[in-house]
Design a protein that fits this description.
CATH architecture of the largest domain: Up-down Bundle
Structural class: alpha+beta
Order of helices and strands: EHEHEEHHHHHHH
Number of domains: 2
Strand order of the largest sheet: 2-1-3-4
Largest sheet: 4 strands, mixed
CATH topology of the largest domain: Glutathione S-transferase Yfyf (Class Pi), Chain A, domain 2
Strand content: 5-15%
Number of helices: 9
Distance between the termini: 52 Å
């Protein structure tokens, strides 16, 4: 097997799962759904209970919640609980009860009876925008444009994360074909954004919306060096000047600065958030 062109594999008639197939997250990936163990989820004092991790998808939810609070929506107070996907927390029975797909983030709205579960990051953004009447245009054309870009992100990011990111950073060996394939698609997507942002301040026009919150953690990170190691150089992220301008403007929002620190370990980060003061200082 060469580094760039592995040979000798012929797919069998029926695929068989090899549990130890190498690569990051191999110990938690599996071809079946459902819980692996019983574990109830904790419940905090706030109306909204978020169970997440500070990945690009997780950051979408915490940015939105912090933006709502900054805009004066006190009902958006939340508890953010840490889900360690490396340890398989997402397969606990309580988490699976909120999200049968076992992916972060997952949100529980306890203000309804019964409580409402919301899973998939785009669904969380849309649910909160509609619940609080914020960051989603109310006119037909503006709302449609915002949702166009929200769903663009939900459909496009798997090529960036599960495609380019996986083969560039996490696969057990480098495969040139796979990296070339997904690098090309990622750069095409960045060009889509760059052309659009050449004529628009934000994704849906002149106003900041949930479309920006969805796209910024993924594609902004590629241009700012906060994504896969050296990927901003490999993909020439700085060449997408309109994306860079937009990324920097969004990054300077106080609520974005707060939201991107939640459900992470390390200096300046907080593993869990249960009060606004947790992010002060």
């Amino acid at each position: 097997m060469s580094e760039n062109h592995p040979t000798g594999y012929e797919p069998p008639e029926v695929w068989t799962w090899e549990a130890e197939n190498g690569g990051a997250f191999a110990s938690t990936n599996r071809p079946i759904a459902g819980p692996t163990h019983d574990k109830e989820l904790p419940v905090g004092k706030h109306p909204l209970q978020l169970h997440s991790l500070g990945t690009p998808n997780g950051i979408k939810a915490t940015i939105m919640l912090e933006e709502l609070l900054a805009a004066g929506h006190k009902g958006a107070e939340y508890d953010a609980w840490y889900i360690d996907i490396g340890e398989g927390d997402q397969f606990g029975s309580g988490f699976v009860g909120i999200n049968p797909n076992s992916k972060i983030p997952a949100l529980l709205d306890t203000t309804t009876d019964p409580a409402t579960r919301i899973f998939e990051s785009g669904s969380i953004l849309l649910y909160l925008a509609e619940k609080f009447g914020a960051f989603l245009p109310t006119d037909h054309a503006g709302r449609t444009e915002c949702l166009n870009w929200l769903f663009w992100q939900m459909g496009s990011a798997p090529y960036l994360g599960g495609g380019f990111g996986h083969f560039f950073a996490y696969a057990p060996f480098k495969i040139q074909y796979a990296i070339d394939r997904f690098a090309m698609e990622t750069k095409r997507q960045l060009d889509v954004l760059d052309r659009h942002l050449a004529e628009n301040r934000y994704m849906a026009g002149s106003d900041y919306t949930i479309a920006d919150m969805a796209i910024w953690p993924w594609y902004g990170a590629i241009t700012s060096g906060n994504s896969y190691a050296n990927s901003e150089v490999f993909l020439e992220g700085a060449s997408y000047t309109n994306v860079v301008r937009w990324e920097r403007e969004v990054a300077e929002r106080p609520a974005v600065k707060r939201g991107r620190r939640v459900n992470l370990n390390g200096e300046g980060k907080i593993r869990e958030r249960h009060d606004a003061s947790d992010l002060d200082g």
